[in-house]
Amino acid sequence: MIVGLLTVKDWIIFIHTLKEGMMIVPMNIKPRQLEIIEATGKLLTTSGINGLTIKNLAYEMNFSESALYRHFSSKEEIIVTLLNYLNENVNKIFKESPISGVFEKDFTVLFKELTYYFKENPFYVVVVFSEGLINESARIGEKIIQLMDSLTKHAQAIIKEGQDKDLITRSLTSEQVVQIIIPAFRHQMFRWKISNFESDITQSIESLSGSLLELLKRRSEQ
Predict the structure, then answer these.
(1) 27, 83, 149, 182 — which has fewest CB within 10 A?
(2) Where is the HTH tetR-type domain (predicted)?
């Protein structure tokens, strides 16, 4: 969803608005730059990386190309800024939902909070989980890896918590478990995208997290 033109007053109100305890992180992004990166997410979703050009982005926003260049020097800079923005938001989600020590709660909250964020910002799904984007440039690839590392690190800490308490299997390392659950989450996100964001992603992720918990729980030897 593209944010309309914001006044300074509107922007101040916007960045202080809480959405069920989750606040959008503004970084040092100006209001017009935020509009541009949100439009970038939408264009990536509808047209893919090949359709993301300065010309198409200017058309999408009803801007001139020169107006876009006043805010960003290149397409790469726009994508890098978007990825930095997403990384800060994902890290803020984790910071505001610290590990509580109750494994099942922490595991469920991980999925719930990420789902809520992407439900509020559906056009970022492709940005975070697209394989094509990572090959666009070395700089963009590095930023995507940083973003995925943030997600992996938090998920791995939760899995290790469950293993340390002997609540879930230790036949796999925490790293191996994360290599299963992150792709499973990603798969559900892409199914949601394919449905034009019309399917019930909340229900799908709740079902997924419940199924994964059952698979991971330790079973008493017969």
Answers:
(1) 149
(2) 30-90
Residue 221 belongs to a domain = no
For residue 4, report the phi and psi dihedrals to the nearest 5 degrees: -70, 175
**pTM over 0.85, yes/no:** no
What is the CATH classification number for the domain harbouring 110?
Answer: 1.10.357.10
Q: What average pLDDT values come out for the chain (222 residues) when binned by 10 residues? A: 39 36 57 92 89 93 92 94 92 84 92 94 84 82 90 94 93 95 93 93 96 82 38
Residue type, 56: N
**Tokens of residue 170, six digits:** 């230790």
Number of structural domains found in the chain: 1
Distance CA 82, CA 15 (A): 16
Nearest to 189 by CA among 178, 204, 172: 204
CA–CA separation, 137 and 141 (whole Å): 6
